[in-house]
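User: I'm writing a short report section on ligand binding and want a predicted complex to refer to. Could you take this sequence and flavin-adenine dinucleotide and write out the structure as tokens? A short remark afterwards would be nice.
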Amino acid sequence: SFHSANVIRAVEQVKEEYDYVIAGGGTAGLTVGDRLSADGKYSVLVIEYGIFGGVLAGMDPSREFVIPSIPQAGLNNRSIPVVVGKLVGGSSGINGLQFFRGTKEEYDLWAQVGGNGSTWDWNGMLPYFKRGIHFVPPLEYLAKDFNISWDMNAWGQDNDTRVFAGYPNYLQPELKLFYEGMVKMPGIEIPKDGNAGTDGLYFYPTTMDPASYSRSYSRTGHWDGINRSNYELLISSKVTRIVFDGNRAKGLSFVPINGNSSQITTVRARKEVIIAAGAIHTPQILQLSGIGPTSVLLAANISQMVDLPGVGTNFQDHGYIRGPQFVWGAQPPVPVVNTSGDPKTGLTANLGAIIGLPVITPEKVESLAQAFENQDPAQYLPKDAHPHIVAGYKAQKDAFAKIFRSKNTAWMWLILGGTPSFGPAHQHPMSRGTVYIDPKDPSGEPIVDYRAFSNPIDVATMIEMIRFTRKYMASETFAAYKPKEGQPGASVESDAQLENWIRRQYIPSVYHPVGTAAKMPRELGGVVDEELLVYGVQGLSVVDASIMPIIPGCPTTMTTYAIAEKVSFQTPFNGVKANHQQAAEYIKKRTQG
Ligand SMILES: Cc1cc2nc3c(=O)[nH]c(=O)nc-3n(C[C@H](O)[C@H](O)[C@H](O)COP(=O)(O)OP(=O)(O)OC[C@H]3O[C@@H](n4cnc5c(N)ncnc54)[C@H](O)[C@@H]3O)c2cc1C
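Assistant: Sure. The structure tokens for the complex follow:
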């Protein structure tokens, strides 16, 4: 079928050399592969670990890496499964389809820690959000019934952008009750469009092809139906390391997943080697290739090529907790709507309160901000943290201090799903973890340490998210329905009681790992520069979620697409179709020198 054109299943079909060789056919990898091969001038090979398989319902180990984290001291020594995609399309092929971006302030933080003149801020990203996503507005009756508005200044609709943001043709009427209750909470804003730079309460789109109401992901957007002879995809193959000629990256080595794992093949890249294996495996490939922290490479007996302490460091994810959960004492009536449509088109929840600390806790925001500001930057990092890492965390801390008190920084994401059960997500943990190769088995799965709650500010802010959720349920809108708290139970009330419960229940991952090859200056622990080229070598870049220096307050797919688009084009974009001539010139510039 056309889906399989140019999919390589046998290593003999791989050519010796391509212009670009990409490790990882996931969200970013296929986006870059598509864009670089678009005008036919350059040949591209993508090497993907996983299978070329359709998407199944639910979680499925044949399409996922599931790696147990090391036991988390801050979570009563629980180990947390680290889950990332392992198929063509990567995590975009298995994710929860929630699709929105962070606020202007959050991307502006990236530039603040990004060095002089950094273009990785909201204004620098917006063209690529537009370029990367094809927006389809909701149906009129839904927009009316549920008060959904949008701002086309924040969206693109390019014909050759086939990653879609869309809405189902049905929404549960019960959502109206939860919406109306939230509107009345003090400080809640209703943005015209939550994707236009501000947060609040809104219905966001989902990653959905609006023609078929099915998952839209990097495979359907950047591979299926393209069929270019200069764009090839090798599946079921694991990249093991980068091959160098002096300090210039010259290619990738890989082994088959099925069959003889000692059968190493090397493929050369004329122009650039691109690592796009995601925030868990990109640092592993770099470390296996001698690029990383000295102590990590020494322990694994790998000779160092570049001393980059940031590789695998600065690891971040969102976290969440199941609860508080309530039961109704009296069932609320179902709100009246004019909506028709098919409930099955709603592939996922898409209403959220995405709010800042002054809204979550007007009473405590000031004291929390001060407590954070007064921390010593090295205090909660690992004891032996490299001075560059400490400097980078200090820069992040200084930037954050400004926005702790801002309404427009998404500290909490509270999904409203039509029942009184909640799973508040912490969108700005200040703890920083690590992803390092296992010294006993460097090419086995890496050792992942979330270091959850290593910074105590994260527990303190989580406590207030629980309290906000309770305040919401205790508000007048719900009074007649007598909500009664099941989990954790109303008696869990003091800071100490809540902290105790949180440490037992918190999950330090919403499957949004980022930050392990950050785009920051080298002296701040950065791994890649403004153009996402790895410091200290030539011809090597990282293009995936690893490069985010600070996790934005949103699920991470849309941002990952924008990163891949930005680095592929870097052309000014004013709602006009990106110009392939300019793109080609940019790419030429990138590959000289
Ligand atoms: C279960 C789950 C639910 C999520 N829910 C949401 C959501 O609702 N909304 C949202 O916006 N985001 C969500 N995310 C996060 C989002 O999907 C990711 O942030 C994003 O897709 C990351 O893109 P990436 O390109 O960095 O990595 P990926 O898309 O993960 O791509 C990495 C690719 O590299 C491959 N690979 C790894 N190691 C090697 C190797 N050695 N050799 C060759 N290939 C290799 C992998 O198989 C994979 O295909 C979710 C993620 C998961 C896992």
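A remark for your report: The chain has two domains: 2-161+216-315+513-591, 319-505. The chain is about 25% helix and 15% strand.
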